[in-house]
Design goal:
Its cofactor is Mn(2+). Helix content is 29%, strand content 18%. It is α+β, with helices and mostly antiparallel strands. The chain has a 5-stranded mixed beta sheet with strand order 5-4-3-6-13, sandwiched between helices. Strands 7, 8, 9, 12 and 14 form a 5-stranded mixed beta sheet that branches. The chain is elongated. The structure holds ligand LR7 and manganese (II) ion (MN). Manganese (II) ion binds next to loops.
C-alpha cells in the first residue's frame, strides 16, 4: 500500500528546490531594504528599571518575509483537509495493537500524507491582519522520546510548509534516548534531504523533556526559540503572529491556540479561543474559561492576544536571550511535568508577559496516557517536579499542593495537625509507679483495619512526631525508615537564588494581579481536616467530581480528600470545588467555586464551633445515622453533632 509508506512521496521537496533561487533573492533584498519602510516597523521599547527588558532587535537581525507557499491538498490520501481517518473494520486488530505503541492511532497516522492539508481555522479578522514586514528568525526545537515516524515527520513538514522561509532559521531535533530503529540512522539520512537546515542532537541517556529542551536550546542560532511537541501540525499563518508579539516586546512569551488532533482518527479539531491556562491545588495544568475582565481588557476583540496565567508547556515561542535571562528551565526536573507551571509563574513574577495569540493555531495529538516509561515511577517524578515549583515560586500557597498530596505528608504534617503536648520537653514528668499494676491483653496483630494502610498511618504519625520534636535527630528516623521520606525535592537553592537575583515578585502578587480567579484562595483562615466533635469523623470529598454530594469518613490525617480551606470569602473549599447548599434541608454538594458568596457562603464560629450556612441560616450537622456518610443541614441547636473542629485563627 502506497499510503502506508508515504514518507517518500513528499512533493513539496522538489517544489522547494525550484524556489531556492527566489528565496535567496528575497534574502538578498533584506540587505538593502529601504530605511523609510523600516521606520514604520520599528517599535518603541521601554527599558524597565529592573533591567530585565532588552532593547528591540537590531535592524540587521530582522528578516523580510512573505507568507509560506500554499501546499496543494493531495486528494488521494486519507485525512486531507484535516479530516478524520476511519480504519476499515478488518484492520481493527492491527489498529488496536499499534495503538499501544504511542497511545494514539498509529495506523491512521501512517495513512496520512506527511504534508497533509488542513482547513484554515482562523477568524476572518486574523487572515486580514498585517504583521511587521521585518521579523526575527526562529529555530524550532522539537524533543522526543520514541516518537512515531509519521507524527514526528508531520510536525517537521508542517513547520517547513507553513512558515515563511526567511523566518525559519532551522529545525533542531533532540532525541531523548529513543529505542526505535527509525529514529536512528534512517532519521539522520532523512533530515539531510530536507529543504530547511535540520540538525539532530541526542541525549546520552534518558534525560526527560526538560533537559532535552535545554540541550536543544543550547544549539539555537535563531533569535527566537519556538518549542513544539513531536506530534504537532502547524497551520497556515501560525508563526507570524507569534514572532510579531516578540518583536514588540522581547519579554513576551507567546503560545498558539493548541487545537486538538484526535488520538483515534487524527481529525483536526479546532479548540476554543475562550479558554486559558490555570492550575489546581495538585498543581495540574488545567484549561478554564477566560473571565469577563480579560475579554474587556482586550476590548472584546477575540483576535487580540490573551494574557494567560499559565501555559500548557509544549508549544511556545520565546526570545533566545530572554529565555536564558529569566532562567531557562529548572535542570532539577526529570522526565515530564511541572516545567510548564514553573515557567509560567517565573515569567509573570519576574517581569515578563505570557500570552496566547488567537491568530496562531497549532494542532497537537492529545492522548489519555503516556506511552513511555518514567524511570523512577510516574508519581515520584511528577510529584517531585511539582514540589520544586511549590518550593521556589509559590510561597505559602505551596501548602495547598502539599495538602492535596498524601505522598508528601511529611510536609503537610507541619501545617495541618496540632502537635501533641510532650511531657518532658515542656516541663512535665513521666513516671512508672512500681507499686501500681494493671494487666493488659497483648496481641500479635491488630484486629481492626487501618484506613489508608497500616504502614502509611504509622509512618505518618511517626514522621509527625519526628518533625515536631526530634530536631536534627529526625534524620535517624528517616534514615531507618526511608519510605517515610517519600518525595525528595532535591536541591532548589539555585532556583531560589535565581528568584532573588531577578527580584521576582511574590506569589501573592501573582495571584492578586495575574490570576485573581485562581483556585488558590488569596486569604484563608484554615487549611486542613474538618472533624466532627461528636463522631470524630472528618468531612471528605470522597474524591468525587463537581456536583457530587459531600461525604464523611474516618479521619486519616493524610490530606488529599479530607483537606479543606476556610477562606476569607467564607467559602469551604477543596481544590476548585466549594461546599454548596441550595435548600435549607440540603443536600450539601461540591460545586465549582464561583466566588460570589450565595449558596457557597458559610460562617465558622470559633466559640460555638458551628458552621452556619448564610443563605439558609442552617447549621452543618453530622450525618443522620452512622451508616449514611453524608453530613446534612439542620436548624442550629448547639448539639455536639453540629460542632466542627478547625484551628481557625482569624487574621483578617
Ligand atoms: O522523557 C521524555 N523525553 C522527551 O523528549 C518525555 C517526553 N519527551 C518528549 C515527548 O516525546 C514529546 O515530544 O517531550 C514532549 C512532550 O511530552 P508529551 O507529549 O508526552 O507531553 P504532553 O503533551 O502530555 O504534556 C504537556 O505537558 C508537559 C509537561 O511536562 C509538556 O510541557 C508538554 O510539552 C505538554 N504538551 C503541550 O503543551 C501540548 C498541549 C497539551 C496540553 C494541555
Ligand atoms: Mn504532547
Amino acid at each position: 500500500n502506497k499510503n502506508l509508506n508515504n514518507d517518500y512521496t513528499i512533493k513539496t521537496n522538489d517544489e522547494y528546490k525550484g524556489k531556492k533561487a527566489a528565496i535567496a533573492a528575497a534574502l538578498q533584498k533584506d540587505e538593502d531594504f529601504d530605511e523609510a519602510n523600516l521606520e514604520e516597523n520599528e517599535v518603541e521599547h521601554d527599558m524597565g528599571d529592573d533591567g530585565l527588558l532588552l532593547p528591540p532587535y537590531p535592524k540587521s537581525q530582522l528578516r523580510r518575509w512573505a507568507p509560506a507557499p500554499f501546499v496543494k491538498p493531495q486528494e488521494e490520501t486519507p485525512g486531507e483537509m484535516g479530516k478524520a481517518v476511519n480504519i476499515p473494520i478488518e484492520q481493527e486488530k492491527v489498529m488496536l495493537e499499534k495503538f499501544q505503541e504511542n497511545q494514539f492511532n498509529l495506523l491512521a497516522s501512517d495513512m496520512i500524507s506527511l504534508n497533509r492539508s488542513l482547513t484554515d481555522v482562523r477568524f476572518e479578522k486574523c487572515k486580514a491582519k498585517r504583521y511587521p514586514t521585518l521579523l526575527p528568525t526562529t529555530s524550532v526545537v522539537i524533543v522526543f522520546h520514541n516518537e512515531a515516524w509519521t507524527t514526528l515527520l508531520r510536525t517537521i513538514w508542517s513547520t517547513i510548509n507553513r512558515s515563511p522561509r526567511p523566518l525559519l532559521k532551522e529545525i533542531i531535533l533532540v532525541d531523548d534516548a529513543s529505542e526505535k530503529e527509525h529514529l536512528g540512522k534512517k532519521l539522520e539520512d532523512y533530515i539531510k534531504t530536507l529543504p530547511v537546515s535540520t540538525r539532530l542532537f541526542r541525549t546520552e541517556s534518558r534525560s526527560g523533556l526538560i533537559r532535552a529542551r535545554l540541550l536543544g536550546a543550547k544549539h539555537v542560532k535563531g533569535d527566537v526559540i519556538t518549542f513544539l511537541d513531536a506530534h504537532c501540525e502547524c497551520t497556515e499563518g501560525w508563526l507570524e503572529p507569534l514572532l510579531s508579539r516578540i518583536v514588540e516586546d522581547r519579554s513576551t512569551v507567546v503560545c498558539p491556540i493548541i487545537d486538538v488532533i484526535s488520538d483515534t482518527t487524527f481529525e483536526y479539531i479546532q479548540a476554543s479561543d475562550m479558554t486559558w491556562g490555570g492550575f489546581n491545588w495538585k498543581l495540574n495544568f488545567r484549561w478554564y474559561r477566560v473571565p469577563e475582565r480579560e475579554m474587556q481588557r482586550r476590548g472584546g476583540d477575540r483576535t487580540a492576544p490573551l494574557r494567560t496565567p499559565t501555559m500548557a508547556g509544549g508549544l511556545f515561542a520565546i526570545d533566545r536571550e530572554y529565555f536564558y535571562k529569566i532562567g531557562s528551565y529548572d535542570e532539577g526536573m526529570d522526565i515530564w511535568g511541572g516545567e510548564n507551571l514553573e515557567m509560567s509563574f517565573r515569567v509573570w513574577q519576574c517581569g515578563g508577559v505570557l500570552e496566547i495569540v488567537p491568530c496562531s493555531h497549532v494542532g497537537h495529538v492529545f492522548r489519555d496516557k503516556s506511552p513511555y516509561s518514567f524511570p523512577g515511577g510516574v508519581q515520584a517524578v511528577v510529584l517531585k517536579n511539582a514540589a520544586r515549583v511549590a518550593e521556589v515560586w509559590m510561597d505559602e500557597w505551596g501548602e495547598f499542593y502539599y495538602a492535596m498530596n498524601p505522598e508528601s505528608y511529611d510536609k503537610i504534617g507541619r501545617k495541618i495537625l496540632v502537635p501533641t503536648k510532650q511531657v518532658w520537653m515542656c516541663g512535665g514528668t513521666l513516671e512508672i509507679a512500681p507499686c501500681s499494676h494493671v494487666g493488659h491483653v497483648f496481641r500479635k496483630t491488630t484486629p481492626y483495619s487501618f484506613p489508608g494502610g497500616t504502614g502509611r498511618v504509622v509512618n505518618h504519625n511517626n514522621a509527625r512526631l519526628a518533625e515536631v520534636w526530634l530536631d536534627d535527630w529526625k534524620h535517624f528516623y528517616y534514615n531507618i525508615n526511608p519510605g517515610a521520606l517519600n518525595v525528595p525535592v532535591g536541591d532548589v537553592s539555585e532556583r531560589k537564588a535565581l528568584r532573588e537575583r531577578l527580584k521576582c515578585k511574590s506569589f501573592r502578587w501573582y495571584l492578586e494581579n495575574i490570576y485573581p480567579e485562581s483556585q488558590m484562595p488569596l486569604d484563608y483562615y484554615y487549611l486542613g481536616e474538618i472533624r466532627n466533635a461528636e463522631t470524630s469523623n472528618c468531612l471528605d470529598t470522597l474524591g468525587g467530581k463537581a456536583g457530587q454530594p459531600l461525604g464523611m469518613g474516618y479521619c486519616h490525617g493524610m490530606g488529599g480528600n479530607q483537606v479543606f480551606a476556610y477562606t476569607k470569602r467564607k467559602q469551604i473549599m477543596s481544590d476548585d470545588n466549594c461546599l454548596d447548599a441550595a435548600h435549607p434541608r440540603g443536600p450539601i454538594k461540591l460545586i465549582r467555586c464561583h466566588g460570589m458568596r450565595g449558596n457557597q457562603e458559610w460562617t465558622y464560629d470559633t466559640k460555638s464551633r458551628t458552621i452556619k450556612h448564610t443563605n439558609t441560616g442552617m447549621c452543618l450537622d453530622k450525618p443522620e445515622s452512622a451508616d449514611v456518610w453524608k453530613p446534612v443541614l439542620r436548624s442550629c441547636d448547639r448539639s455536639r453533632g453540629q460542632q466542627w473542629l478547625m484551628q481557625v485563627d482569624f487574621k483578617w
